[in-house]
Amino acid sequence: MEQGISTLAPAMIAAWVLVAVGLSALAILLYAALRSRTRPGDLERAVQAFRALDIQAFRNLVDFSEEAFLRDHLPPRKFRAIKRQRAWAAFLYAWEAGRAAAQLAMVGQAAQRSSDPTIAASGAQAAENAFRLRVQTLRAGVILLAGVLLPGLQSRPIPALVDQYERSAETLFLIGRGSSGSRGLEVA
Predict the structure, then answer these.
(1) Is 185 exposed, middle or buried (CB count within 10 Å of its CB: 0-12, 13-18, 19+)?
(2) 53: exposed, middle or buried (C-beta count within 10 Å: 0-12, 13-18, 19+)?
(3) CA-based nearest residue to 172, from 123, 138, 136
(4) pTM exceeding the 0.90 threshold for the entire prediction
(5) 73, burial (CB in 10 Å: exposed 0-12, middle 13-18, buried 19+)
(6) pLDDT above 90: residue 91
(7) Can you tell me the distance from the alpha carbon of 150 to that of 56, in angstroms, rounded to the nearest whole number?
(8) pLDDT at res. 79
(9) Stretch among 92-96, 97-101, 168-172 having the lowest mean pLDDT
(10) What is the C-alpha separation between 152 and 10, in angstroms, rounded?
(11) Are 168 and 101 in contact (CB under 8 A)?
(12) Would you give the end-to-end CA distance of the chain in angstroms?
């Protein structure tokens, strides 16, 4: 009997640890969701977030022809070190694009409540674009982190992120023009 209990105890402890980790993760997700709902969406801040990113520099960091050039002209060890740095820089760009997408989502939600049908329609489009951009930034982040950790592997393409970023920026600027550049789009 004692032998059965001693083999069962580690399994029970592991199960309780997994339950605690799962509940902690759920609490963090709930906190993040509630925090983003109560934070005001400011059109001007969202526009600044989009303008702050140098999308051409990001495009250069993930360009395959640039990587091929570096691979052909650098020793393997130096190439891996530079590829790791470039992947990390691109990851930071993707992270900031994700933050800009969150700002866009808040502005889009506020714009959807506008009495002007044009602004409301642009708000719906902005919220949809923000969601798609966020998904693309998460996908790109995973790919880029793999490049940081394993720089010897062949890079995977990240074409949709740049295109989605540009579509999202266009939608945001349409909302800005429709609301006459006012800061009146506040999420309550």
Answers:
(1) buried
(2) middle
(3) 123
(4) no
(5) exposed
(6) yes
(7) 25
(8) 92
(9) 168-172
(10) 39
(11) yes
(12) 61
